[in-house]
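User: Predict the structure for this protein chain, please.
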Amino acid sequence: MIPMPSYRVRFTKEHSLRYLSHLELIRGIERAIRRAGLPMAFSEGFHPHPKLSFGPALAVGISSAAEYFDMELVRDFPPAEIRERLNRALPEGIKVLAVKKIVRRVKPLNAVINRASYAILLRVDPRERPEIIAQLNKLPASSTIEIIRKTKDGQKVVNIRPWLHNLTIGVKDDDLLELEFGGEIGSGGNLRPDDLLSVISQPAEVLAITRTGLWREENGLVMDPLDLCDQAGG
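Assistant: Here is the predicted structure, written as structure tokens:
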């Protein structure tokens, strides 16, 4: 059987749509694909569903500059046309940035993506800013960073240090700090923005959290998920 044409899409999730749940996002994008006149391929069986898969779920309230989904269509379209059609059909707050045709067999996005980067904007008391910066600057040199996570079985102490790969702190104003960090995501570990915030002992108001990127790290090489669509390999 000749495989149906498949595409990988990078998109943003911003403004009020950052409050959509992952399921609401999936349904909204399905509707937009239909409105755009892009004929989706469906699975076989008693309950056919669109051949559409997404990257790691984004927590409600967090914006994103780079989310991904893969879709399979029943006929071929130029990537530029897909981008244009989707952007006309999508609501404000979701914008397609890039579309790339998948020309080889690829693993699902959730199996591929294992790195994420974030930016957090904080409002702090200017008098306590030096202490907050000092606390955060200690993290990369620490051998352990233990936090408490709530699980279905109760509270659990977790060492997030192995999942933190980089951290920079920028002073935006007397009372504004911007944290930029990257870490693991997926089955190997999952560093969340609130994990990092939990180590700050002083009060800090979170003004915005943005997921700035999703990546694949393998053997020291960091790759854009779009670049995996046409690379040789399994």
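The first strand starts at residue 6 and ends at 13.
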